[in-house]
Amino acid sequence: MRKIFREECNAALQNVTFDNRQQKAVRMRVERCHKPRRRMRGMVAVAVAAALTFSGAFAVQAVRDNIRNTMASWEDTHTGTALGLSQSDAGLTVTLDEIYGDTWYVYLKGTVASETEKTMRVDNWTNRSGTQYANAGFCDWEFTIPDQKTQLSHGSNISFLSVNGQEDAPLEFLIRLSATDFALTGEASALFNGFWYEADGELQELDGCWEFTFPVDRNDDGETLLVGKSIQTDAGTVTLDCLQFSALDISAEWSGANEALFGWDQSNTYLLLKSGERIGCQSAGIEDENGEKTRMEFAPFNNGLGHISADDVQAVVFAGQEIPVT
Fold it and tell me: Please, are residues 300 and 129 in contact by the beta-carbon 8 Å criterion?
């Protein structure tokens, strides 16, 4: 089992560009958080650790508190459902504070606080797009939702907000879940195993377990902008079917030649706003069982530009070709 895990780890790192020292740091973090009984979680750890190492591999032009900026923008005119659920173990109290969701994503806001220290000393790190995070995370997590088709762990994302130096302030985190299979009502559960963080460059680990049951709160009201415009690339024709606007994120649905959809130039693929700002492409993946639809996600939290609606967008640029949406 351990040999298989090492092979998976090596495969996950093949397309990541950094030096041997940085790759070693990734593997050390993954090994420490890896639980053989859940190989999928180990692969999530690879992605997390690789992202952490990226902060030292790229020159960052500007650092923005992107998560808080966009959350504050959305919360100016929207409210979620308060949860106020807490569980304590291993000297840490984990709290789920609030939930809100729409057609595309469900978001959970929470905190982690030490039971013995007023303030947890945690390092910050910055990714290549300039978003700053706290260098911390859960080692393993699972979500179970009503009427789900598959377990959502692999479709979840947990971000720990950057530490801003406030006294007695707990670590804040935001969970984003895909709403594709998420019911509108009922109860869901969350299980977090283990917690790690870095302070002054030293990795710390706590072997705790925190489990929650919480009410689902999701409205089927995400904004969709139908586009239906095509462009021709060297690898074939691709069509931008629609843009999907959630509370804190934006995604796009494409159809057409897979060779083109997965061979695009990421540095020249982005969302162009009327303000002139750009939100780069983060990832793309097959969306439907027939492999005919591709879902593309733009940079998390809209690069700190706040909540964005269809009225704010001028075009989508795909591999350098502009597709107007207005």
Answer: no
Q: Name which of 255, 253, 260, 251 is nearest 279 in CA terms.
A: 251
Distance CA 206, CA 115 (A): 13
C-alpha 193/C-alpha 184 separation (Å) is 27
**CA contacts within 13 A on the Cβ side of 238:** 27
Work out the burial of residue 53: count CB atoms within 10 Å of its CB; fewer than 13 is exposed, 13-18 middle, 19 or more buried.
buried
Rounded Cα–Cα distance for residues 286 and 269 (Å) = 17
Residue 273, strand partner residues: 313
The C-alpha atoms of residue 194 and residue 176 are separated, in whole angstroms, by 19
Amino acid at position 215, single letter: P
Is the Cα torsion angle 118, 198, 190, 216 positive or negative in sign? positive
**pLDDT tens by residue, 182-217:** 778 888 899 999 999 999 999 999 999 999 999 987
Taking alpha carbons only, the member of 159, 174, 196 closest to residue 32 is 196
Cβ atoms of 321 and 274 closer than 8 Å: no
Tell me, yes or no, if the pTM score tops 0.70. yes
The two tokens of residue 307 are 């909540």
User: Tokens at residue 28, please?
Assistant: 């050390």
